[in-house]
Structures are given as structure tokens and as C-alpha cells.
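#data-curation
PF: Archiving a pair of folding outputs for the training set. Convention for this channel: one message per protein, sequence first, C-alpha cells after, nothing in between. First:
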Amino acid sequence: MNHAFPGPTRLICLDAAGTLFRVRGSIGAIYAETAVAHGLPERRDLADVLERRFREIFPSMPAPVYRPRARVHNDRIDRAWWRLLVARVLEGLGPLSFADFFDEVYAVFAQPSAWEAYPEVAEVLLDLRRRGLRLAIVSNFDARLFPVCEGLGLAAAVDAIVIAADVGVAKPGVGIFHAALQRFGLQRAGALHVGDSLEEDVQGALAAGLRPVYLHRDWDSDRAVVPRGLPMIRNLSELHAMLGK
């Protein structure tokens, strides 16, 4: 779908996981390897089982409840949220030293080596900055996002990283989008937000007054229903046509 935006764009906000980078391999495989190292019995389909469970449980988890501008408290909330999620994913699969397992697997996903940037990302971000656009990562990802972005070269490629735990509001709440605008002293009319979630990214951006762009990387194999008139791209390279530059 090709939509050109009217008027100048000064700021592009981008979601993180699923938009700029993805897990290297699979979550299920990482959980399985770590769990077996901490006592879970091996089974041939363990990685597939854990991957399926994660994909089922993750979207059903209630959003973390943050306090405004209380980063230390909110970091603890994020860790507790992930501990509950991972416990549910592993529930009933066998004996496991869970506390040690969780500490290790939580640390794994703070390492850049657990992630990989999508192929077009580095070139697209460089080109957008050359055009004079400001760039911000706006994400519900917890504080582990900072070392991940540093290691993947994303921190140097953008002007700001705004996470929910810093602001005290997660997407689709408007506060996290408004916090990004305030970083640059910009009005909503000059900003757009790109992300892969219809609820968190598209609906959140619309509610906050930003122009949304829906990123659906699997469009060719999974033609989900997309709201009529919603700007959609299949990779970040397609932003160029929308910006009309």
C-alpha cells in the first residue's frame, strides 16, 4: 500500500522489537537450552512447545502497571512481569531450578547477541537522518533495550530512546508518545510512528495525534485485515515513498 503523507515530517518514532530487530533464532530455542541447563528434562519438541506457549501467553498478559517517572520501581515491575510470564510458559513441564533459570534467561535477552537487526534497518536509519529527520525509538521494551540498541548500533543511529518504564506509561497510552515529542520540542502534526502492533503502535499513535504507519513484515504469508486507509509497509525501506522525498 502506497500512501504519501501531506505536509512536512520532522520526527519519526519507531517501535523496537519486531520493527527494528528480532530474536536471533527463536525464543523457544533459547528458553529450552537454558531450561535444560537448569534441570528441565530434555525432549525433542521442547523448543517448539516453549515457542508456542510463549506466543499464546505473551499477548494475554495484563500490561505492567507503572508509576509516573519512577524508573527504579518500574524496572522492578518489568522484571516481575517477565518472571510471571516465563513461569507460565514453563508451568507443568517438569522439575527446574526456576530462580536460577530465570536470572540467566533474563540476562540473555539483555545481550545484543540474542538479537539481530532487520537487514534494511541500518541503511534506512542513516538515510532518514541524512534527510534531516529526527529519529526516536519509542518502545514498551524494558531497560534491557539500552544495551541491546547499543550493541546493535541502533543507539548511535537515533536521537532518543524512550521506554515505558522511564515515562511511566506504556503504549498504547498517549503519554509515551507525548514524551517523545517533548524530547524534541515538536508538535504532533510533524511526527509519525512506525510499528508492528495495530493496538500498541497504530491505535496508540492515533490517540496521541501522531500519524501511524503499520509495519507488517509477514504480509505476503499472513494477509491480516488492515483497517481501510491505514498506511502500511512491509519493510522500513518503503518509508521513502510515503515521505515523498
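PF: Second:
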Amino acid sequence: MRKAIARAKEDLSMIVARDPSISTRGEALLHPALPALWTYRLAHVLHTRGHRWTARILSYLARSVTGGIEIHPGARLGRRVFIDHGAAVVIGETAVIGDDVTIFHQVTLGAVGWWRDDRREPGARRHPVVGDRVVIGTNAIVLGPVTVGDDALIGAGSLVLADVPPGARVMAPAAEIVPRLSAEDREDSAQLLRALATSGCW
């Protein structure tokens, strides 16, 4: 019990330290990461003791009140894991996350799919291992039994399918700025169609 209380206090302090919009522990109680983390810790204990149904129900309840933070009770999270904003974060069953990791919204730490995972040995890892002090940017996707080394940075919008060495940076291509179409190009229906298609304007 003392360990659980100490972890809860540590989580509160971590949110105050890493979220500039939070100034007190009282305010940190309203941060979406907190119920997700606290519920996960309880669900994880239940899961490891064989109470899988209860653990899954708790994780579903947490997801419904945290803007969609889905942490499988079988995942292993370290200390001071910070989930900023929280919306649509998915952490799979065999994922392992180290200490002092920062995860932004819409991050997926997932598997590559049942069509490949069903061919793995029973009990084999299907999800990523994330080292200590890693930062995973918004909408990054890390799939499969890859390892992200300590102090790595996964940039926003990145798709990671292979191991990332410690301290490395993974960056998605930046958006391309395209000049406005000229009057002549706008009259050219083929040119206009290409511009609209690549802009997602269907």
C-alpha cells in the first residue's frame, strides 16, 4: 500500500513538472493521464494475478473517461510515464515502457497484425519495448516487437517498424509547401485535379 501511495504522489509531481499548463497537484488531479495511469496500475496487478476479466473491464472504463487512452493491463509501464493530452493513445498487451517516458496524443504502440502475430511462438512479444527517457511525438506509430533505445526521440507522424538505437532521432518528412496555382493552371482541369487530389479535397 505504501508503495502504491508513493507511486501516486510521484505521478502527481510528474504531471506538474512536465505540463506547463498545470501549476499545482490539485490541478494535476484533473489531467487525463492520471486516471489512465492509476487505473492501469490496478488493472495490471489484477491481470498478473489472473483476474483478466476484471482487469479488462477497468481498462475499458478508464478509456471511456480519459479521451481514449487505452493501456492494455498486460503492458508494463515504468515510473513517471507522462501521457500528454492523452486522446487516442494505444499501448498494446506486450509493450514495455521504461522510466521517464513522454508520450503525446494519438500515439500507437501496437502489433503488426494478427496475420503475422498468429505465426509467432506462444508468449512471444508482439509490441514495442521503449527505453528510458524516450519522447514519442504526436501521431507516431511504433509497431511490432521493435526496441526503442534510451533517450531516443520519435518525431510526430513517424512510422517506426525497426529498432531505434539509443539517442537516435526518427523524423517524419515535413509537409511540402506548394505555391498557389496560377490562373492558367486553374483553368487546366488535369492540373487542378492533381492539386485537389493531393490536398485530400474529395
